[in-house]
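Blinded run. Sample ID left blank on purpose so nobody reads anything into the name before looking at the predicted structure. Input follows.
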Amino acid sequence: QVHVVESGGGLVQAGGSLRLSCAVTGIIFNRNDIAWYRQVPGKQRELVASISAFGITNYVDSVKGRFTISRDNAKNTVYLQANNLKPEDTGVYYCKPVYANSWGQGTQVTVSS
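Blinded prediction complete.
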């Protein structure tokens, strides 16, 4: 059974940084693509960044140049380094294996102006 635990969210001022972590168990981690999503109340959950099993990364245009996704296969963990945060980055951030339908509880990111 796939289990996902996100952490690292918090309240920061605009321009600040956070490092989100995503620990995944129940899969062969180093063979799976992993993605970060975020959800804002009243809007659909959107894909923010993804990293393939081979380390190929993709980002939504709004975070390019500010966010970096990475993975540590030895720790079954994916990270999202979020720099130069903006108020519009506020939301609950979730991660999951791209091809599994197992969501964690998410981690709240709040960016004040």
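Unblinding after everyone has recorded impressions. The CA atoms of residues 87 and 111 lie 5 Å apart.
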